[in-house]
Amino acid sequence: MQKESLPPIHRVVTGHDAQGRAVVASDGSLPTVVEIAAIPGTTFHEVWATSATPAPVDNDEDPTLGPLSLPPPPNGTRIRFVDIPPDTPEFLAQGAATMHEAFSQIGDAAASTVQASSPHPLMHRTDTVDYGVVIDGELTLVLDNGEVQLKPGSVVVQRGTNHAWANRSGQPCRMLFVLVDGRR
């Protein structure tokens, strides 16, 4: 039985009023939710981003507006949910050009590392430390050498390694990711 679609994300952003008191700056749905055309069903839910460390605690504009970008800003962070549909035979048969197009749509064509011998078509690598938490569903973390099954509550600390997320469960999966800019 196919699971219904995953619920929308509700975001609350706080800020300060003119007297310096804490207030709700926004409360509602995410302004940037993007389905990746090259991988139907894969949806990015952009929550927030910072562009410096330490991060400014001010009332600046929403950093999620504008084009989708896979990595965080330099010296910054990015938090997002990603809905990952089940792998299908058609998806698994797609070539490297389609996968490079998918990564182009999320603002980082260079992240795709897929080759004919890759263990999964979504193999990629970024210069980031990523904290990935399975919220709903199941996934398999695919590495150059090895795989790990993930269930709700599983946390992956991905440290700039070549990897992919395979959904072999037959159900959609939702992951929460916090990406931190890194260096090699």
Structure description:
With 184 residues, this protein is mainly β. The protein is 8% helix and 39% strand. It is built from two helices and eleven strands; from the N terminus they run E-E-E-E-E-H-H-E-E-E-E-E-E. The strands form three sheets. Strands 3-4-5-11-6-9 form a six-stranded antiparallel beta sheet, with no helix packed on it. Strands 8-7-10 form a three-stranded antiparallel beta sheet, with no helix packed on it. Strands 1-2 form a two-stranded antiparallel sheet. Strand 1 and strand 2 form a beta hairpin. It is globular and about 60 Å long. The model has no long low-confidence stretch (mean pLDDT 93).
List the main descriptive attributes of the protein structure presented here.
mainly beta; three-stranded antiparallel beta sheet; single chain; globular; six-stranded antiparallel beta sheet; 39% strand; Jelly Rolls
What general form does the structure show? globular
- Reading side by side through the largest sheet, how are the strands ordered? 3-4-5-11-6-9
Counted by DSSP, the helix tally is: 2
Write down the Rg. Answer: 17 Å
User: According to CATH, what is the class?
Assistant: Mainly Beta
Alpha-carbon distance between the two ends: 44 Å
